[in-house]
C-alpha cells in the first residue's frame, strides 16, 4: 500500500484491474489460489474504508443506493452506533451528488455478487 501513497493516482487503475480480474469469466484463466488472492485483496479493501484512497474506489461499488435501501430507523441506528460511519455516510452522499447520472446508474454492486458466485462455483466444480 505504501507505493500507492507515493503515487495515489495509480490506485484507481490498479483497483479496477483487480476487480476486472476477479470478475473474469474465462474458465481456467486464474487458478483457485489466484482467485483467492484477488478475493482477499478486495476483502481487505472493503475492510479499509478509513483509507481515503481505498474508500473512493470501494464507494463506487457500494455507494448510496445500497445505504438508501435501509429503513430510515435502521440507518440511523447504524450511524449512531459508529460515529465514524456517519462521517463516511456524509462523504458518500457528497461524492454521490458529484457523480454524473450515467455513472450513478451503472450498478457495480452486483459485481461483488458475481465475484463471490464465480469463486464459489469454481471451488465446487
UniProtKB/TrEMBL annotation:
<dbReference type="InterPro" id="IPR032174">
    <property type="entry name" value="Aquarius_N"/>
</dbReference>
<feature type="domain" description="RNA helicase aquarius N-terminal">
    <location>
        <begin position="2"/>
        <end position="107"/>
    </location>
</feature>
<protein>
    <recommendedName>
        <fullName>RNA helicase aquarius N-terminal domain-containing protein</fullName>
    </recommendedName>
</protein>
<dbReference type="Pfam" id="PF16399">
    <property type="entry name" value="Aquarius_N_1st"/>
</dbReference>
Amino acid at each position: 500500500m505504501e507505493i500507492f501513497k507515493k503515487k495515489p493516482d495509480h490506485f484507481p487503475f490498479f483497483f479496477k484491474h483487480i476487480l476486472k480480474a476477479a470478475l473474469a469469466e474465462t474458465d481456467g484463466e486464474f487458478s483457485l489460489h489466484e482467485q483467492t488472492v484477488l478475493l482477499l485483496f478486495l476483502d481487505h479493501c472493503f475492510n479499509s474504508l478509513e483509507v481515503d484512497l481505498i474508500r473512493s474506489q470501494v464507494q463506487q461499488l457500494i455507494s448510496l443506493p445500497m445505504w438508501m435501501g435501509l429503513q430510515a430507523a435502521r440507518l440511523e441506528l447504524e450511524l449512531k452506533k459508529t460515529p465514524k460511519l456517519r462521517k463516511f455516510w456524509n462523504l458518500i452522499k457528497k461524492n454521490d451528488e458529484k457523480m454524473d447520472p450515467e455513472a450513478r446508474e451503472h450498478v457495480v454492486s452486483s459485481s461483488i455478487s458475481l465475484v463471490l458466485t464465480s469463486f464459489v462455483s469454481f471451488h465446487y466444480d
